[in-house]
């Protein structure tokens, strides 16, 4: 007598439960990042950075139940890039007008 062919077991069916929800902090981070580039440059960028980091931490700790890491990262990128642009603009302003004042002071005008 020969042995019967091995029976393959199908993978378990997905458990029916609540679908993952999007993190509210991630949405807030993205919205504030956009506001940081449009209507609230300073405040929107800072709020986007803070809520983006909080959202990523929240998503990592509740991984299967929450999603929205991409939204949080987009908010972080928008927030940090606005801060970088603002710092660069301030530095260029200081260098430009500092150079003008230095020229005026040294020329004796």
What report would you give on this structure?
The chain is 69% helix and 4% strand. It has helices at residues 24-38, 41-61, 69-107, and strands at residues 21-22, 66-67. It has a two-stranded parallel ribbon with strand order 1-2. The longest helix has 39 residues, at 69-107. The protein is elongated, with a radius of gyration of 27 Å. The relative contact order is 0.15. Residues 1-20 are annotated as: Disordered.
Q: What is the tally of helical segments?
A: 3
Report mean pLDDT, rounded to a whole number: 88
Spatial order of strands in the largest sheet: 1-2
> Which structural class should the secondary elements be placed in?
mainly alpha
* Domain module count: 1
Number of DSSP strand runs: 2
Poorly predicted tracts of residues: none
Strand content: under 5%
- Apparent shape: elongated
Order of helices and strands: EHHEH
The biggest beta sheet is recorded as:
2 strands, parallel
- Roughly how many Å is the radius of gyration? 27 Å
* Measured distance between first and last alpha carbons: 112 Å
Distinctive features:
3 helices, about 110 residues, mainly alpha, two-stranded parallel sheet
Fold blueprint:
Elements: E1 21-22, H1 24-38, H2 41-61, E2 66-67, H3 69-107
Parallel strand pairs: 1-2
Gist of the model:
With 109 residues, this protein is mainly alpha-helical. It is 69% helix and 4% strand.
